[in-house]
Design a protein that fits this description.
Length: 151
């Protein structure tokens, strides 16, 4: 006679998979908002940064005081990033619980994989942006002599 095993439904694995998918969507929305087109081109922004450096250096050399800082603008990016990372962590935890309870493994593996992918994608994106910003800053500093040419 065959032993019939009762299969447990994948409750935790399914919930973790759904949260992992939601975290990936949140991360992708947050990353796409970073590349949202603005009214200014990249060349204009770089030119404004260079002009700001030139004006700041001229102000320091002439002994003038720095201008008052601008009021802060409300930004929901960090809140959305925190929500995405918390959801990714919950997906990893629920996937782990599903694996511990011997639920069907496919959804639990997907939950853990999607949660880890959301965390790694966010980290790698900001690492790439940081490297590009450093390269841009290095090129501006190397050309500082041309920027500070007052003639």
């Amino acid at each position: 006679m065959q032993d019939i095993l009762e299969k447990q439904p994948a409750k935790f694995g399914l919930a973790g998979f759904m949260l992992g998918s939601a975290s990936m969507v949140f991360v992708l929305i947050q990353l796409s908002a970073f590349f949202e087109p603005e009214e200014k081109s990249a060349g204009t922004v770089i030119g404004e940064i260079a002009a700001d450096i030139k004006l700041s250096a001229a102000r320091v050399l002439s002994g003038e005081a720095a201008p008052a800082p601008l009021p802060p603008v409300q930004d929901y990016g960090p809140i959305m990033l925190t929500i995405a990372l918390v959801i990714a962590g919950l997906a990893i935890i629920l996937g782990g619980i599903g694996l511990y309870r011997n639920e069907p493994h496919r959804l639990s593996y997907l939950a853990v994989g999607l949660g880890i992918s959301a965390l790694v994608m966010q980290y790698m994106f900001w690492l790439a942006i940081l490297i590009c910003a450093i390269a841009l800053l290095i090129s501006i500093v190397e050309n500082l002599g041309d920027i500070l040419d007052f003639g």
